[in-house]
């Protein structure tokens, strides 16, 4: 005789039935201005899109430099996805960061968008992309500042949807994955550098799951040095890493972890570091994880095993070198 445990029975049944596709659908919000890890994050999203593991619906730039959107366009184009929509925060400026890579990518690498001025505004693009998707199907990946996402949450009904921003997010967005903050407490650049009141607004009003990947994750994942010797010379990802960081040098991988989690979930690479609770953001952008109230909020941590960070770094390097064309 055999005993069929209820859990096994359910699993067997689920395996036997055709399942609706659950491919994650991502919209990435990036500062793509100073740190080159935004480029790695976009590279991963393009790679996973090319492999059919996710769908990259669009990219929104949350810094005002006119070179941000073209830099995104050069990366998307390199990976064979020149038509993925890109929006950029307005008004645009001529600002560049030193050391600069966005201007380099915008001017020396092929792309479709060549000036941030020539892009749609982020909030209308978000609303259009969300309105066109199945309920509860979209993951927003935030690896920069918070203008665009606060604007989405605060938006009002328009021609694409009768829903106000918060209701549209509640209906369409499965979760938002945010690179920002430090856990269980501390300060971090994305939260405290631009406009902490927007981070407060979002963390207090977001109606679906929020997952945070904090300072302490990326600072322990060093990757990208391999690009110098092993990536093709025409790779904008290689160019960005060399321009920002110098040749043959690793960089902390904060932003890529948000794309990895958004694409594959915890996947034995991460665990949740909290048991309940929720984030509290102070006026200066510093954050504290509080035991209550418990919300559908989580922060990533490394599994308790030696070299958990090395596993992720190695995988990231492999992904950054994976050929797509
Ligand atoms: C920005 O750069 C463009 C050329 O790329 C130039 O025409 C324009 O005057 C510059 N604007 C400012 C405010 O410097
Ligand atoms: C939300 O919109 C209102 C009205 O336009 C505006 O006054 C307010 O500053 C906005 N808040 C955020 C966080 O964007
Ligand atoms: C893994 O973490 C250790 C301890 O923080 C660090 O010394 C090492 O450089 C990290 N390795 C990688 C590949 O990121
Ligand atoms: C931010 O504000 C909190 C609360 O007032 C304070 O405890 C913390 O030290 C401040 N952090 C920084 C980096 O100034």
Key traits:
325 residues, Inosine/uridine-preferring nucleoside hydrolase domain-containing protein, alpha/beta, Ribo_hydro-like, Inosine-uridine Nucleoside N-ribohydrolase, Chain A, Inosine/uridine_hydrolase_dom, signal, hydrolase activity, hydrolyzing N-glycosyl compounds, binds 2-acetamido-2-deoxy-beta-D-glucopyranose, disordered N terminus
- The proportion of strand residues reads 15-25%
Rounded radius of gyration (Å): 20 Å
Mean pLDDT: 94
Task: Report the bound ligands by name, code or SMILES.
Answer: 2-acetamido-2-deoxy-beta-D-glucopyranose
Helix content: 25-40%
User: Superfamily at the CATH H level?
Assistant: Ribonucleoside hydrolase-like
Largest sheet: 8 strands, mixed
Number of helices: 14
CATH class: Alpha Beta
- Based on secondary structure, the structural category is alpha/beta
Task: Please explain how this structure is put together.
The chain has helices at residues 6-16, 37-50, 68-78, 102-108, 122-131, 147-153, 165-172, 189-192, 196-205, 215-218, 226-230, 236-245, 255-264, 308-321, and strands at residues 25-30, 55-61, 86-88, 138-142, 173-179, 185-186, 209-213, 222-223, 251-252, 271-272, 278-281, 287-290, 297-301. Residues 1-13 have low confidence and may be disordered. It is 38% helix and 17% strand. The strands form 3 sheets. The chain has an 8-stranded mixed β-sheet with strand order 3-2-1-4-5-7-13-10, with helices on both faces. Strands 6-12-11 form a 3-stranded antiparallel β-sheet. It has one domain: Inosine-uridine Nucleoside N-ribohydrolase, Chain A, CATH 3.90.245.10. It is globular, with a radius of gyration of 20 Å. By secondary structure, the chain is an alpha/beta fold. It binds 2-acetamido-2-deoxy-beta-D-glucopyranose (NAG) (4 copies). Residues 220-222, 309-310, 313 line the site of one 2-acetamido-2-deoxy-beta-D-glucopyranose.
């Amino acid at each position: 005789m055999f005993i069929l445990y209820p859990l096994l029975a359910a699993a067997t049944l689920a395996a036997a039935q055709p399942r609706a596709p659950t491919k994650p659908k991502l919209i990435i919000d990036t500062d793509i201005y100073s740190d080159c890890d935004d480029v790695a994050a976009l590279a991963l999203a393009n790679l996973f899109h090319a492999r059919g593991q996710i769908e990259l619906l669009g990219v929104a730039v949350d810094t005002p430099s006119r070179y941000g959107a073209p830099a995104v366009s050069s990366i998307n184009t390199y990976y064979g996805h020149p038509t993925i929509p890109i929006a950029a925060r307005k008004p645009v400026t001529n600002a560049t960061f030193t050391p600069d890579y966005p201007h380099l990518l915008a001017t020396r690498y092929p792309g479709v968008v060549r000036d941030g001025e020539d892009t749609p505004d982020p909030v209308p693009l978000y609303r259009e992309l969300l309105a066109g998707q199945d309920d509860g199907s979209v993951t927003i990946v935030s690896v920069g500042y918070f203008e665009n996402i606060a604007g989405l949450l605060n938006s009002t009904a328009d021609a694409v949807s009768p829903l106000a921003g918060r209701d549209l997010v509640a209906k369409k967005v499965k979760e938002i994955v945010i690179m920002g903050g430090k856990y269980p407490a501390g300060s971090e650049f994305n939260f405290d550098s631009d406009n902490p009141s927007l981070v407060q607004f979002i963390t207090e009003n977001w109606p679906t799951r929020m997952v945070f990947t904090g300072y302490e994750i990326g600072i322990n994942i060093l990757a990208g040095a391999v690009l110098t010797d092993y990536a093709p010379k025409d790779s904008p990802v290689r160019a960005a890493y060399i321009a920002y960081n110098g040749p043959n040098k690793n960089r902390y991988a904060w932003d890529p972890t948000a794309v990895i989690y958004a694409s594959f979930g915890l996947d034995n690479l991460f665990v949740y570091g909290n048991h309940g609770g929720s984030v509290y953001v102070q006026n200066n952008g510093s954050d504290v994880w509080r035991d209550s109230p418990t919300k559908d909020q989580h922060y990533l941590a490394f599994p308790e095993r030696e070299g958990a960070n090395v596993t992720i770094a190695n995988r990231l390097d492999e992904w950054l070198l994976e050929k797509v064309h």
